[in-house]
Every structure is written in structure tokens, then in C-alpha cells.
Design a protein that fits this description.
This protein has 267 residues and is of the alpha/beta class. It has nine helices and eight strands. It has helices at 15-37, 48-59, 72-116, 131-140, 156-160, 174-179, 195-208, 222-228, 236-266; strands spanning 42-43, 68-69, 122-127, 144-150, 165-168, 187-190, 212-216, 232-234. Strands 5-4-3-6-7-8 form a six-stranded parallel β-sheet, sandwiched between helices. The longest helix has 45 residues, at 72-116. The chain starts with 14 loop residues before the first helix and ends with a helix.
Length: 267
């Protein structure tokens, strides 16, 4: 509490982590309330503090044995707490600490790979990940080393299995971009599917790098994104439309020209 102002990074819990916390609170509440309600069936359990103590030593599998059940009802309750307690504690610790350990190992592996990398391949950082970005990453990873910044933690394992570096965090947050080493990128692709977020991501990236920044958006304001620091703003839908419309007219002209040539030859 005294040094809380030094911790500026935000922390968000996934649904699994929230569920784990609720489960462990529920189990310890169940153990405390049940032990105190059945205190007559336990040896040396007289107060709420005794009930809390019994719940903790049972759930943690320490089991000192000083508080122990005497009646069948108390023994059945103790069995239920033995089953629920350690299981819930184990799952909670795994869900809360596991992702952080995985993230640390990922960053360590990424640094080691970058240190050992000597083939001169370009490094591209992709801010945001969706269906469109996925197809772009599939193409980019064949020609460059790709790092993805996304706030979707469920994508971490899937992307890392393809040897793609993943940094979990807000693509528009400067600290997250520092962690992704945007300053060492040769190019940055911004595609967060949100206009405002795209703009903030471009601003944050431009503060850290002079590399080429490309924004992929279907609804973004091109002028605003370019003022924020984007070098190129691409609208995939517009490109496809222009490609279809642009190839339709020349084909018509070729058909008309062909028909006219045939008519001339017939004449």
C-alpha cells in the first residue's frame, strides 16, 4: 500500500481467473461456516477463528491434527472440505500465476531468439488481431519475423505454437508497445478494428519508432490517421471494390473493340 503509486500497469482478470477467485472465496466461506456450525463435533474448535484455522490447514493439506472431527457428521464435512479445498486452491493458483509464468517465459524466449537471430530478416509488429489480421500475419510470417500485440489472452498459445511472438496488452498503450519492442521494428501494422484505438495505437507507435506504419481499416478516417503518424492507410474493402470495378470497364472496352473489329472485317 505504501508503494502502490509506483505500480502503474493495469491488471485485468480473465473470466477463468475471476471464477477461480470466486470459487476459492466460496470454499473458504463454506469451510469456515460449516466448521463453526458443527463445532460441537470437533475437538478444540470453539470460535470462528478456530473454524478459519481448521479450514486453512485442511485446504492447504497441512493438517496439523490439533483440530479434528469427533462425530460422523463432522467427519463427513471434513471429507468434503478435503476434496474441495486443495482442488480449488490448486486451480486458483494455476489460473492466476500460470499465465504470468507463461508470459515471462515467452518474453525470455523472444529475447533469446532475437539475440541469436543473424539472418537479417525484417521484424514486423502487428497491433491488434482478428480474422483479417490473421490472413495478413499468415503472409507476413513467411518473409519476416512477426510479433503480435493483442489484449485477447486466449490467442497466446495458438500464436506461439506457430513461432509468433505475442505480447498481451492494449495495442494503444505505450508501455505495452515498449514491451513488444516496437522501437526495433522495421514496420508496424495497425489493425485493431476500432477507429479511435487505431489512432491512439498509431500515436503511441510513432512516439517509439520511425519505422513505416501501415493502418488496415475499413471505416477509419484516413486524414486523422495520417496526421497521427501513419504512412499508409489501407481499406481492404475499397481496394477490392476498385479492383472489381476497375477490371470490369476495360473488359467491356475490349469486348466492344473486338466486336467492332469483327464488324469491320465482315464489312
Amino acid at each position: 500500500m505504501l508503494t502502490s503509486d509506483r505500480f502503474t500497469r493495469s491488471t485485468s482478470l480473465t473470466a477463468t481467473q475471476m471464477g477461480s477467485l470466486i470459487a476459492i472465496v466460496g470454499v473458504f466461506s463454506y469451510g469456515t461456516a460449516g466448521a463453526y456450525a458443527l463445532r460441537a463435533g470437533f475437538a478444540e474448535l470453539d470460535t470462528v477463528l478456530d473454524a478459519v484455522y481448521f479450514t486453512f490447514v485442511t485446504a492447504s493439506t497441512v493438517g496439523y491434527g490439533d483440530v479434528h472431527p469427533l462425530t460422523e457428521g463432522a467427519r463427513l464435512f471434513a471429507v468434503s472440505l478435503i476434496v474441495l479445498g486443495p482442488t480449488t486452491v490448486g486451480l486458483t493458483v494455476g489460473s492466476l500465476i500460470g499465465p504470468e509464468i507463461e508470459s515471462r517465459l515467452s518474453r525470455t524466449g523472444r529475447r533469446a531468439k532475437e539475440a541469436a537471430q543473424k539472418d537479417g530478416r525484417e521484424r514486423i509488429v502487428v497491433l491488434g488481431y482478428d480474422d483479417l489480421t490473421e490472413s495478413l500475419v499468415d503472409g507476413l510470417e513467411k518473409h519476416a519475423d512477426v510479433s503480435v500485440v493483442t489484449d485477447d489472452k486466449t490467442l497466446t498459445s495458438r500464436l506461439e505454437s506457430r513461432a509468433i511472438d505475442v505480447v498481451v496488452g492494449d495495442p494503444a498503450d505505450e508501455e505495452t508497445l515498449r514491451e513488444a519492442q516496437v522501437d526495433a521494428a522495421t514496420a508496424v501494422l495497425v489493425a485493431t478494428t476500432d477507429d479511435a484505438r487505431n489512432t491512439y495505437a498509431v500515436l503511441a507507435a510513432r512516439e517509439l519508432t520511425d519505422a513505416r506504419i501501415v493502418v488496415c481499416t475499413e471505416t477509419g478516417n484516413t486524414d486523422a490517421l495520417e496526421k497521427a503518424g501513419a504512412d499508409v492507410v489501407v481499406d481492404p474493402g475499397k481496394l477490392l471494390t476498385n479492383a472489381i470495378v476497375g477490371t470490369a470497364h476495360p473488359s467491356s472496352e475490349r469486348r466492344d473493340h473486338s466486336a467492332a473489329s469483327t464488324a469491320d472485317q465482315s464489312g
